[in-house]
């Protein structure tokens, strides 16, 4: 393969030493190549990727801290600042209203500008808004703080699923997504527990809780600043991939050349070498044609490995097989098409995908139930059933923490096992998702039928346990189904629909129902009814996938030759 990075000459020894010097130690050795989609543990790349993964968890915990703290504060804030029930619902939903508005802006920033600077800006906006919330002396200050928090939160909410899809090891993407999603549960639970403990500090306890959250943000932002940007950037030269390479697992038979083992190289370290700077980039490897310096018997087949791409052995000298031709042609067309799309056309292209829209509806319905229950059920238990406030705090803290975390761990483990053991049966994952959603619907039917304290406590335990593993799997699948150039747009669409139908609906609509029907039980009906929308959407998605699978099987059997022109 010819590259623009290095020009070969007859002096092979000088060539090798020059290349090794310029690439800062990137050379071939006798170690076997890294398996596709896996990192060599504790290399620089692996360490920084893992550190940022941990920071992602902390950010998710801190951002969602108030999902648990605000429900505890509701009665205190309402009493001190004379909020009506509807105003409390508006305050809770403002965070999500403002998350919808800047999604297009954040999508543009992460696509065309530095991801690290954009991420830092979004988190700093969240931190400043929480300072304003903790120092509020008037109800309008609460509204302003919640609005700006949502504006900053939109950037992080768009960033982390794409980052996981880009940087996570392919065999553990579901697990990584589930762990980061668990930050939402852990954050809400920690906020719930910590704010409950601060209730012993008197009237200022809720302010201490908010300032505790601000202190956590300050520490994590400082740690994020120290991570090199190449481990944060979402679009690491992926449009420059050479589509003329074969990804088949074939041995390299050409003994006149040797390949260097490739590793991830940051182009920032080579500014003085302009001819290398545009070719040696992260997640890109280079093949250099060098005259043989060893006898043919000592030459080894070194694979060209992408650290993040699902490719194995790539040999530019081999003739491409039929699968490679089809894959390369599709990737080339998709990359060229999305690269020249305007922002509006990208949104139209994403929204034309019916399964994607239904998937967004599933996520929104589930979060409507989860956030509605977290935001309103404490108040319903205290005001309607006259249960002591601290007992409700203790019971719901246990439910929110144990059920969601256990559900995430068990669900992600089961999903990874299904994907690993049945790679050719993608509908098996849909079977699991439909089963979990059906159990959630049964629990909701029980709660809506009996409406007593025991039914509500046990029902919420079941709902949170079986809803938790659904969201990370569905969210990751919705992002993975698009070309890399469309991922930020798809993520922003998920966030828009999630915030409008899920977060805003879950916090605002139950409060309006209580004021309209003058009964706290109206909130219970409003919160748990959307679970049936999730089940219906999953069934429609399953029917569509099943019909497509059947058609593809029929077409495959009726054609003896594959049409490469497609």
Overview features:
single chain, about 575 residues, mainly alpha, Growth Hormone, Chain: A, 2 domains, 20 helices, disordered C terminus, Major facilitator superfamily MFS-1 protein
Protein architecture, described:
43% of the residues are buried. The chain is mainly alpha-helical and 566 residues long. Helix 7 runs antiparallel to helix 18 and helix 13 runs parallel beside helix 18. It has two domains: 193 residues, Growth Hormone, Chain: A (Up-down Bundle), CATH 1.20.1250.20; 209 residues, MFS general substrate transporter like domains (Growth Hormone, Chain: A), CATH 1.20.1250. The protein is globular, with a radius of gyration of 26 Å.
Task: Offer a concise description of the structure.
With 566 residues, this protein is an all-alpha fold.
Helix share, percent: 55-70%
The CATH topology assignment of the largest domain is Growth Hormone, Chain: A
Q: List the domain count as a whole number.
A: 2
Name of the CATH class of the largest domain: Mainly Alpha
- The secondary-structure element order is HHHHHHHHHHHHHHHHHHHH
Number of helices: 20
CATH superfamily of the largest domain: MFS general substrate transporter like domains
Give a count of the beta strands, DSSP E runs of length 2 or more: 0
β-sheet strand percentage: under 5%
Quaternary structure state of the chains depicted: single chain
Shape: globular
Uncertain regions spanning at least 5 consecutive residues:
1-39, 236-320, 560-566
- Gyration radius over CA: 26 Å
Q: Provide the structure class.
A: mainly alpha
CATH architecture of the largest domain: Up-down Bundle
Mean pLDDT: 73
């Amino acid at each position: 393969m010819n590259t623009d990075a290095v020009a070969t000459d007859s002096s092979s020894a000088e060539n090798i030493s020059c290349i090794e010097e310029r690439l800062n130690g990137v050379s071939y050795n006798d170690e076997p190549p890294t398996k596709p989609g896996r990192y060599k543990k504790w290399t620089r790349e692996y360490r920084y990727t893992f550190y940022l993964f941990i920071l992602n968890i902390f950010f998710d915990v801190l951002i969602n801290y108030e999902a648990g703290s605000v429900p505890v504060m509701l009665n205190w804030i309402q009493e001190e600042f004379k909020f009506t029930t509807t105003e409390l619902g508006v305050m809770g939903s403002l965070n999500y209203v403002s998350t919808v508005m800047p999604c297009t802006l954040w999508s543009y920033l992460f696509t065309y500008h530095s991801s690290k600077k954009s991420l830092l800006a979004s988190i700093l906006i969240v931190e400043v808004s929480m300072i304003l919330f903790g120092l509020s002396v008037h109800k309008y200050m609460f509204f302003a703080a919640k609005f700006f928090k949502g504006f900053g939160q939109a950037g992080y909410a768009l960033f982390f699923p794409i980052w996981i899809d880009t940087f996570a090891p392919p065999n553990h993407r579901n697990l990584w997504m589930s762990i980061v999603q668990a930050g939402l549960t852990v954050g809400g639970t920690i906020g719930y527990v910590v704010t409950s403990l601060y209730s012993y500090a008197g009237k200022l306890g809720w302010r201490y809780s908010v300032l505790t959250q601000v202190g956590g943000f300050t520490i994590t932002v400082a740690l994020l600043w120290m991570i090199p940007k190449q481990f944060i950037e979402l679009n690491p030269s992926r449009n420059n991939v050479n589509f003329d390479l074969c990804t088949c697992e074939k041995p390299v038979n050409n003994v006149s050349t040797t390949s260097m083992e490739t590793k991830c190289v940051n182009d920032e370290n080579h500014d003085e070498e302009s001819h290398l700077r545009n070719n040696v980039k992260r997640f890109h490897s280079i093949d250099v044609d060098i005259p043989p310096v060893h006898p043919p018997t000592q030459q080894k087949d070194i694979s060209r490995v992408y650290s993040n791409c699902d490719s194995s052995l790539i040999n530019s000298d081999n003739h491409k097989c039929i699968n490679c031709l089809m894959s390369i042609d599709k990737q080339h067309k998709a990359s060229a098409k999305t690269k020249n799309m305007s922002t509006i056309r990208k949104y139209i292209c994403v929204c034309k995908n019916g399964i994607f829209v239904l998937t967004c509806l599933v996520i929104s319905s589930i979060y409507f139930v989860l956030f509605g229950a977290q935001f309103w059920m404490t108040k319903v238990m205290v005001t309607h059933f006259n249960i002591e406030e601290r007992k409700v705090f203790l019971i719901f803290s246990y439910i929110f923490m144990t059920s969601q975390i256990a559900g995430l761990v068990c669900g992600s483990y089961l999903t990874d096992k299904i994907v690993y053991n049945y790679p050719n049966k993608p509908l098996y994952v849909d079977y699991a998702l439909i089963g979990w959603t059906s159990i959630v619907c049964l629990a909701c039917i029980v709660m809506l039928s009996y409406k007593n304290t025991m039914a509500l406590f046990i029902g919420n335990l079941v709902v949170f346990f079986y809803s938790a593993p659904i969201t990370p799997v569905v969210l990751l699948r919705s992002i993975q189904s698009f070309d890399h150039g469309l991922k930020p747009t798809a993520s922003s669409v998920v966030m828009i629909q999630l915030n409008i139908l899920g977060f805003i609906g879950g916090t605002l609509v139950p409060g309006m129902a209580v004021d309209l029907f003058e009964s706290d039980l109206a909130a219970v009906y409003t919160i748990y009814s959307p679970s049936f929308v999730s089940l219906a959407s999953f069934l429609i998605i399953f029917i569509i996938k099943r019909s497509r699978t059947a058609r593809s099987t029929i077409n495959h059997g009726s054609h003896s030759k594959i049409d490469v022109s497609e």
